[in-house]
Design brief:
The chain is α/β, with parallel strands linked by helices. Helix content is 33%, strand content 23%. It contains 11 helices and 13 strands. The strands form 4 sheets. Strands 1-7-6-4-5 form a 5-stranded mixed sheet, sandwiched between helices. Bound molecules: oxa(dethia)-CoA.
Length: 330
């Protein structure tokens, strides 16, 4: 039995000002608005300004989350920064953000699980609260993924955008029903080659060859990812519902990773879950990796769809392949 439970005190998100539309992409690669709409549901993506770094996006989302939670940065005890496109390899983006927030010496670390990063991070934050180690935690997903996209590759460049979404997690009061109920995480390293960013690690350090062969950009086997994403997200959702002896009918909103509307529909179909209860903002921002789930959640809180007391199911999948789900009462 856990000593304590955690709850969401407040959420925030940030989309950069610059917008890249389907019509803009028509000028860069052999694609068209109709194909992108029909195959993905995406209409536009937000792109960070040249002078913006990932921790800047995170800072904006964090300020909004702190305001929604009625807290100040001084009350934070831990920062979990979920990203695969941080400011640099080291120091971590979490440390960069900690400094920007003026949080002095609180622990801060990056968490790398690609598009599943935020669901992984939320599970980690929940464990720290459950053990009693921390009472107030900032967990966020932030990405500037467009800097790793080849705008000559029509299969990837139409999908991705930049964003940040943040949750302030706090220890719930005794008998508070609005808590994180449980999380389920998984990974299948054997499917790692479906979505990779080849260069920049110990396997392929930066040399001239990297630029000559475009190894600094993501590579993806889209169709295989799609099939595996539906399979793993559905399995993770079922597992977390079973754990809590609940069914899809009990869930008010499903907030899935925003990769592609057809993919979200396929997960909903698998559950016989009504599509009108799937939170989607993919038309507005495309796939923003670890930022999609907290950003979509925050948008739905602010526009009144997600309300206090509702049962919400989060799910994501990403490179690794990683996947996860989290069931919570907001
Ligand atoms: O967070 C994880 C990141 N990755 C993903 O989420 C990707 C998941 N996968 C997907 O979203 C979809 O598989 C895609 C949107 C990437 C592709 O959609 P699809 O329905 O699976 O299309 P496809 O790959 O089967 O390609 C169909 C056709 C092909 O032409 P042929 O071979 O039928 O002549 C492609 O060459 O569409 C062509 N195509 C395009 N046409 C216009 C591929 N990309 C484009 C494009 N514009 N941008």
């Amino acid at each position: 039995m856990s000593l304590y439970r955690s709850r969401i005190a407040g959420t925030g998100s940030y989309l950069p000002e610059k917008v890249l539309t389907n019509q803009d992409l028509e000028k860069l690669v052999d694609t068209n608005d109709q194909w992108i709409r029909e195959r993905t549901g995406i209409l536009r993506r937000h792109i960070a300004a040249d002078n913006e770094v990932t921790s800047d996006l995170a800072f904006q989302a964090t300020q909004r989350a702190l305001q929604a939670a009625g807290k100040t940065a001084a009350e934070l005890e831990l920062i979990i920064f979920c990203t695969v496109t941080g400011d640099q390899v080291m120091p971590s983006s979490a440390c960069e953000l900690q400094n920007k927030l003026g949080c002095k010496t609180i622990p801060a670390f990056d968490l790398s699980a690609a598009c599943s990063g935020f669901v992984y991070g939320l599970a980690v934050a929940d464990q720290f609260v459950r053990t009693g180690m921390y009472k107030t935690i900032l967990v966020l997903g932030a990405e500037i993924i467009h800097r790793y996209i080849n705008y000559k590759d029509r299969e990837t460049c139409i999908l991705f955008g930049d964003a940040a979404g943040a949750f302030i997690i706090e220890r719930a009061k005794e008998n508070d029903a609005n808590v994180i109920l449980s999380s389920h995480l998984r990974a299948e390293g054997s499917l790692g080659d479906l979505f990779v960013l080849p260069a920049g690690g110990s396997k392929i350090p930066f040399t001239k060859k990297v630029l000559d062969e475009d190894l600094q950009y993501v590579r993806m086997k889209g169709r295989e990812i799609f099939k595996n994403a539906v399979r793993t997200m559905s399995a993770c959702c079922q597992e977390v519902l079973d754990q809590n002896q609940l069914s899809a009918a009990d869930v008010s909103w499903l907030v899935p990773h925003q990769a592609n509307w057809r993919l979200m529909e396929a997960v909903a179909d698998h559950f016989s879950f009504p599509k009108e209860k799937v939170v989607s903002i993919v038309h507005e921002m495309g796939n923003t990796s670890a930022a999609t789930v907290p950003t979509a959640f925050d948008v739905a809180v602010r526009d009144g769809r997600i309300q206090r007391g509702q049962l919400i199911l989060l799910t994501a999948f990403g490179a690794g392949l990683t996947a996860g789900s989290c069931l919570l009462r907001y």
